[in-house]
Amino acid sequence: MTTPIDVIFLWHMHQPYYKDPVKGEYALPWTYLHAIKDYYDMPAIVEDTPGARAVFNLVPSLVEQLLEYAAGTAVDPFLIKGQMNPADMSEDDRIFLLENFFSANRQRMIEPHRRYLELLYMAGEGKAGAVRERVRHFNHQDLQDLQVCFFLAWTGEAARRRFPVFRELLAKGQGYTAEDRALLFTTQRKLLNEIVPLYKRLHASGQVELSVTPYFHPILPLLCDTQLAREAMPRVTLPRERFRHPEDARAHICHGLRYFQEVFGITPRGMWPSEGSVSDEALQLIRECGLDWVATDEEVLARSLDGGLGPHHERLYHPWRFATAKGDLGIFFRDHQLSDLIGFTYSQWDARRAVADFTGRLRQIGRQVGSEGKVIPVILDGENAWEFYPDNAYDFLSGIYTAVAEAQDLNLTTCSDVLAQSHFEGRLHRIHPGSWINANYGIWIGHPEENLAWDLVAGARRAIVEHHPEAARQLANAGMDGDQVARLLCTSLYAAEGSDWFWWFGDDHFSPHSDRFDRLFRQHLTNIYTMLGISPPRELLEPIKKKSPAGLVREPAGFIEPEINGRVGDYFEWLAAGLFDLTRQGSAMHSSDRLLQGFYWGYNHDQLYFRIDGIQELSRLLKENDILALHLIADREYRLPMQRSMEEGLLLVRELGNWTPTNSCCRWAIDRTCEVAIPLEGLHLLPKSKLFASVTLTRNSEEIGRWPSDAPLMLQYEGPDLEANDWLI
């Protein structure tokens, strides 16, 4: 009988450290919200599904926050206002609710609940400036319903099955009382207190393996030496001050392991290094701290091996061993495509079709590379994808587990079990320094904002060493102990070393809460100077994240070549594209038809690409005969009218007041989003020139929306030189 091929699911559970360690207050509520939706649901689905097995990678600073919420000691403005009596609210409190309590996936979490959707319409659908105009229309009952709807929408499907209160409140639908609200929060508190015991129970039964990440989720190789970034990115511009503190990297690892032992009663054997970031020095440290395995991305392996992964990526599907002075460290490399299908594609498929497609791909890999001694690691974020799935992905995940567990040719297992049985002798004596994104560290270093942040961390660390001998000793010895001030100084520094702040600095990612991430990062460092009794540097007193022209999130950072299919199936497809936030560009002609929110653009040597995102899937927003038109101004004025039923057409040019077809055949697809490809030669663009763009929506011969509403977006076309100037590299 053929040996089944091993399959591993590793879910990485992580949130930034939202708590100000000095004030003790939480800046954002995402740990709480993902706890009641994902940190409970994910292990519960494993427990509910016979034969299911998985690896859960838990970040210690996340667990610390979960336990504070469970104990009821977390000071969170969202929870405070969520439980407040509307009659006692100030106008600012009511505005806070309207501005923040619709922070949920519209399609999956708001629209299924009639009352919640009605409240969204009443609030102006999040339109800029609408809240202050509309808050006076909300009476006490409306606000109380909003409080309950928001926190109820964030409960997961497994939680609803195990806690009948949630389903009873959902069935009630509206007219919630103060007693309903109190019951909701009391039950969520019970759920929170079951999360850690649930993981412990599943680990003890062998259904789950628990692994860890360094305490505050830092990019370990950059803590060891920021200069290392040049190996993967030779053209990168580095911070003024070289940061080389492997002792800080060791502190994050060792303290994370100690905390894990205290909470779960076990010492984990494996680690997903933050963002899959690895280097020779980081792996040596991880092994020295006693860990047996790590995981990272397939591109890191491809760049570590002469000859790459092989014709069928056969070299990917092994548990490799990395040679260290303390013995071998097992390394698993994630299958990029399979992981991204779960993260970005299957959410819009029927669950049974998605399961069949996924298991078919697993079997195809087995046929191509063989099964003996092979393993397929599927590794991805364990919380953020599920809000895009029906019922928090309950049917999809239980279906995947069941299908793999019942298959004769597939074996659902864990990393430690694979290592214990593996006879593969392949060893790596060096690892390419990189992360799961582009196999480098470009997301976290190289942009002026990121480099400034690194210099500020270096300056704060130097201030501790110079002004507090006890804390300096702790830092030198990779500690987080000592007296209270020393502990707080070290904690504040290590928290500021976390990767998340650097993720939001620069041009590569955007969040409406980026200003809060900026402020919290600076607060961690400012706390250090306050405790030392010295004035903080001026740079900490003003935002690091610079404001762009209205709506501009980022300029293009490199050539792109997305697949034109109306779906974003790969995280990297549009990562280097420019981006405008259309919600910050003024309203459409009719505020009730505010439909669009994101406008991406980019190019390569031959094609100009655009992507237009709606506030929900465009296939649901646009009617069959609607015309979504892209307007461009270069040497002349161009127009591309698009409909859902068509996939290509000629670019039009305005001549003598009329629209005339050109010879440029353009391609588009309108599904979840609208993706467009336009031949560059048809626009006669010169390097370093400007291109102006806007979008209109016409329904029944009437233009019902224009984005932006006043002046077109100004896009900078760099030409071939773009590749030499990018930040992502």
Protein topology:
Blueprint (H helix, E strand, L loop, with lengths): L4 E9 L16 H10 L1 H8 L5 E5 L1 H12 L5 H6 L8 H10 L5 H5 L3 H9 L7 H5 L5 H14 L3 H6 L1 H9 L5 H28 L2 E5 L7 H5 L4 H4 L13 H19 L5 E2 L8 H9 L4 E5 H7 L15 E5 L2 E8 L1 H10 L5 H19 L5 E7 L12 H13 L3 E4 L1 H7 L5 E2 L19 H20 L1 H8 L7 H13 L2 H6 L9 H19 L19 E3 L23 E4 L14 E8 L3 E8 L3 H4 L5 E7 L3 E6 L5 E8 L2 E13 L3 E6 L9 E11 L2 E6 L5 E5 L4 H4 L4
Parallel strand pairs: 1-2, 1-8, 1-9, 2-3, 4-5, 5-7, 6-10
Antiparallel strand pairs: 6-7, 11-12, 12-13, 13-14, 14-19, 15-16, 15-20, 16-17, 17-18, 18-19, 20-21, 20-22
In short:
With 729 residues, the chain is α/β, with parallel strands linked by helices.
Task: Name its key features.
729 residues; alpha/beta; twelve-stranded antiparallel β-sheet; five-stranded parallel β-sheet; 28 helices; 40% helix; disordered C terminus
